Amino acid sequence: MTVGYVYHPIYLEHDTGNDPESTQRLVAITDHLQQCGLWAQLHALAATPATPRDIARVHDPALLRRLRAQAESGGGLVDADTVVSPRSYDAALYAAGGAINATRAVLAGEVQSAFALVRPPGHHATHNEAMGFCLLNNIALAASWALAEGGISRLAIVDYDVHHGNGTAEAFADDPNVLFVSLHQYPFYPGTGHWREKGGEAAEGNTLNISLPAYTGDRGYRQAFQRLVEPALRRFQPQLILASAGYDTHWSDPLAWMLVSVSTYHIIATTLARLADELCGGRLVLTLEGGYSLTALAHGAAATFAALLGQPYPDPLGPAQEPERPVQELLQAIARYHGLP
Ligand SMILES: [Zn+2]
Q1: Is residue 124 annotated as part of the catalytic site, yes or no?
Q2: Active-site residue among 32, 124, 164, 299?
């Protein structure tokens, strides 16, 4: 099977200084992929900037003008933790364009699956606001491109970053052609994504929020995929699966409280690839969101690529030392709420 990746050096020019969402994150991933021999097995896909027409499918053109003006005037803070540097506007266009190109390559059959190694990340960016390290919503832009120009009419997005993908949820709340599944710590930043939130009136039930308590770990995430993600995707029958891949659920992550290990990232990617095989000709596109422990991030991304290639990936960091919180009853309640078998 051919597995593609998107990368562009401009992603390192989004200069956030000492922010946890730093250029070092992508350096850690690409260095490790080269050292462990996975890089050479992957098919490089181009990154080009998203066009204003692409962006307008999700974002208010005023947001784009604001980001551009801010970058051109030397940069600054968008919110307490979201930085715009002089090259951030261009990097954001290439990040969105990278996610779109990964999707285009998968739908064209150039590769079976692809992982866009982009930054700035995207899933918090809403119609008119950049927030939470995110400037433009890369995955929402890729999804809306696929529906407008990719020749498909139904797709699923699985967001397994530790934070709720509020921007993506907003973009498709009323779109019956998109199933949005988010697994995240709750209550937590950005505050949205309770499991009773299930989409707008036009697409009720097409938003599946799996809001998990702090200290959910490997067992809980694996059960959530089995009990909720798999049956929801089978019921929806997508023609493409997209995933917001975040590694800030790792037990060593400095920004969140979950207890996931690298071995679960391998299982998640294997599960998504198996669902894609079963439901949509193997078509799977991942795009990078968070993950702030550089070591866990590098191994998490490598475990993901190994899984897409059908190869094992030994977890060098091991499992969390703390006991994880059981979530079976919660998962059961969510399944009942969504009428899942
Ligand atoms: Zn996150």
Answers
A1: yes
A2: 124
